[in-house]
Write a structure and sequence with these properties.
The complex is a heterodimer.
Chain A lengths: L4 E5 L3 H11 L4 E6 L15 E4 L5 H8 L4 E6 L4 H14 L4 E5 L15 E3 L1 H15 L9
Parallel strand pairs in A: 1-2, 1-4, 2-3, 4-5, 5-6
Chain B lengths: L4 E5 L3 H12 L3 E6 L2 H11 L3 E3 L5 H7 L6 E4 L4 H15 L3 E5 L5 H7 L4 E3 L1 H18 E6 L4 E7 L9 E2 L10 E7 L2 E3 L6 E2 L4 E7 H11 L8
Parallel strand pairs in B: 1-2, 1-4, 2-3, 4-5, 5-6
Antiparallel strand pairs in B: 7-8, 8-13, 9-12, 10-11, 10-13
Classes of the chains: A alpha/beta, B alpha/beta.
């Protein structure tokens, strides 16, 4: 079976926005969250499938998500530990080719060593954004009150 | 006895019990707990230091000094906390062996596949134990005497067993076998060499504990249909 599906784990602000963005193209997008209310955040344009379930449960992954057909997974629950656990399952058990995982704690990135899993660090993004804006503003070096 | 460096993360009374036991055996203990009050209590009654913190954070494990520990035992009621703790201990701190408790029995095999050396689930164990007990039920029952030196074994003879329908004196028994009694509903037979063993009989056999496995294996040998 050809792997072509995109799976998004966690329908928070980030997960639901990515789902809406990707589903307008020709993609087959599945989004999973254990809380049915979280799908309210999904854009009306979202043309994919939503599943209420626990993405750490292999039976859910195999029978409902059809994880073996997934080519790309983006993991965005609000717990770093859960995100890492799901990323490891996708990588070590199901050989999903492209895995992205959000980690609020940069230190936890060490658990992705020797894998092809790509971390997304909100901390680094905010830090870099601040530094960039500060530079644009001339670093306040000569500023006086 | 070899002393080991043992790390115990989280858990409540099971952690307390293990600390007590390992301390008697003079092992070096490192205790981490995310519940400050319970940690304090364990520290007071066992006279060991307990570090308060989140065991899924590498800096907590570093502060506790778990580097190169022999064993880490993760006892949180949250399976995923145990997983992250064990994997961090292995990958970052070179801990030789990790043991995780899990609540969800479906995760036992998964955790093992993901690299945790030993996974314990009480529900899973209960299931296995019931399975084992019911298996034993159909074949043999055992009663031990004299501090386990003598055993009485009950074996149910199935019709495909090699010894079914044979006369005792014609059977080549291994040494040290004594069929004390044959229960053939409703009668009880004290056998001699001319007695026949029939399918459906229950044999009561007295032996030493060491010989028991060999005896059970002998009696339960099935007819080889290829011959």
């Amino acid at each position: 079976m050809k792997r072509s599906k995109i799976l998004i784990v966690g329908s928070g602000r980030l997960g639901s926005s990515i789902a809406a963005k990707l589903s307008v193209k020709d993609n087959y997008v599945v989004i999973i969250d254990k809380d049915i209310n979280s799908f309210r955040k999904l854009d009306e344009e979202f043309g994919g499938y939503d599943i209420v379930g626990d993405a750490t449960d292999l039976q859910v992954l195999e029978n409902e998500v059809l994880i073996r057909e997934v080519n790309e997974v983006i993991i965005t629950t609000d717990s770093d530990n859960v995100n890492l656990f799901i990323a490891h399952i996708c990588f070590y058990i199901y050989d999903v080719p492209h895995i992205y995982v959000r980690l609020n704690d940069n230190d936890k990135g060490v658990l992705l060593n020797n894998t092809t899993i790509k971390p997304i660090y909100p901390f680094s993004l905010s830090f870099d954004d601040y530094m960039k804006k500060r530079k644009e503003n001339g670093n306040h070096e000569n500023s006086n009150y | 006895m070899v002393t080991m460096k043992i790390v115990i993360t989280n858990g409540r009374h099971e952690a307390d019990f293990m600390i007590n036991k390992f301390k008697q055996d003079k092992h070096k203990l490192v205790i981490i707990n995310s519940d400050q009050r319970f940690g304090q209590y364990m520290s007071n009654i066992n006279h060991v230091p307990v570090l308060f913190g989140d065991s899924t954070k590498a800096y907590t494990l570093d502060d506790a000094g778990i580097q190169d520990a022999d064993v880490l035992i993760a006892l949180s009621t949250d399976d995923i906390i145990n997983y992250i703790t064990c994997i961090t201990a292995k990958k970052v701190f070179n801990v030789k062996r990790t043991v995780s408790v899990v609540r969800n029995p479906k995760r036992v095999d998964l955790f093992k596949k993901l690299g945790i050396d030993s996974v314990i689930c009480s529900t899973y164990l209960l299931g296995e134990s019931i399975k084992y007990e019911s298996l034993i039920e159909s074949f043999t029952k055992t009663l031990s005497l004299e501090n386990d030196k003598i055993v009485i074994t009950e074996i149910m003879i199935e019709d495909d067993y090699l010894i079914a329908e044979k006369i005792i004196k014609n059977i080549k028994f291994p040494p040290n076998v004594n069929i004390s009694c044959i229960f053939r509903d409703p009668s009880v037979i004290i056998p001699n060499g001319d007695s026949t063993i029939k399918a459906g009989d229950k044999l009561i056999i007295v032996s030493t504990t060491e010989d028991q496995d060999m005896i059970v294996e002998f009696f339960e040998t099935k007819v080889n249909k290829n011959e």
